Amino acid sequence: MVDCLRPAALVLLVLLAPAMRVSAGDEGDAGQAKAPPSNKLTLAFYDFSSGTTGFDVNLRHTFMSMTGWIGSYHENDGFDQTRLGWEYDYRSTWLTLVPSVQVATHDFLGATIYAETGARFFAIGGAGRTNLNPYWNLGFDPNDYAQAGAGYRDRAGNAISVYAIHDIRLDTGQTNTHFTVRRYLPDDWRLTVDAVNERGRGDDGVEIKSWSASVDVDWRRWFVRVAEDPHVNYTADRQVRFAGGWRF
Q1: Separation between Cα atoms, residue 193 and residue 159, nearest integer Å
Q2: What is the SS3 assignment for 7?
Q3: Parallel, antiparallel, or unpaired: how do β-strands 80-88 and 145-153 relate?
Q4: Which of 32, 33, 79, 108 is deepest in the core (most CB within 10 A)?
Q5: Domain count of the chain?
Q6: 25 within some domain
Q7: What CATH number corresponds to the domain at position 142?
Q8: How far is residue 86's CA from residue 60's CA, in Å, rounded to a whole number?
Q9: 176 near 192, Cβ under 8 Å?
Q10: Are 82 and 105 in contact (CB under 8 A)?
Q11: pLDDT tens, residue by residue, 164-184
Q12: Which residues, 6 or more positions from 138, have their beta carbon under 8 angstroms from its beta carbon?
């Protein structure tokens, strides 16, 4: 089991880092910044303690206010799944609303909705629903869920949030509580740390109480993620995952 102090310490390190200052000139430059790249390619590798390995490739394209993606996941034990997804991204001064739908092989169908309301201090809400067909969850949270939380975001885009994702359909009691910090650093670097407290029952009925953690580093158009989860998707498997890619 991951030492519960380790992910908490990662979040604390980010919080204690010197505050990032934005001058009036910086704000002016930001207002004139070019539009971000519309495509994002992610390659990922998953290593399980049981000896299984998984590979995933995902390509996203962002339109004016919508995003579509296609992805494929493969395990060396024979499980393969291809998925397609779409989301609509609505943003105003006080409201963010992101509904999405996803279909995948093995006759999987799912839908989610995510919302934020507020400006610097904001509330978080969301929900997800599936048809319960086979699906390897690469989001590593319950698929049929309700979400609630809150956060704070400063003018530079640095943010801290706390939210819980709770199973509302299968009576497992699974609840993932996320403690997330995102910080912009000099020279176009960005750091995101997500520590997750996982509590609930797995498919075998065993009660899980553990912590997982992930660290994302972005630099300009490139990004990389490293994560460790002692009970991935509430199974007996410890998983280490690596992902990286670029925007273009």
Answers
A1: 11
A2: helix
A3: unpaired
A4: 108
A5: 1
A6: no
A7: 2.40.160.40
A8: 9
A9: no
A10: yes
A11: 999 999 999 999 999 999 999
A12: 44, 56, 71, 73
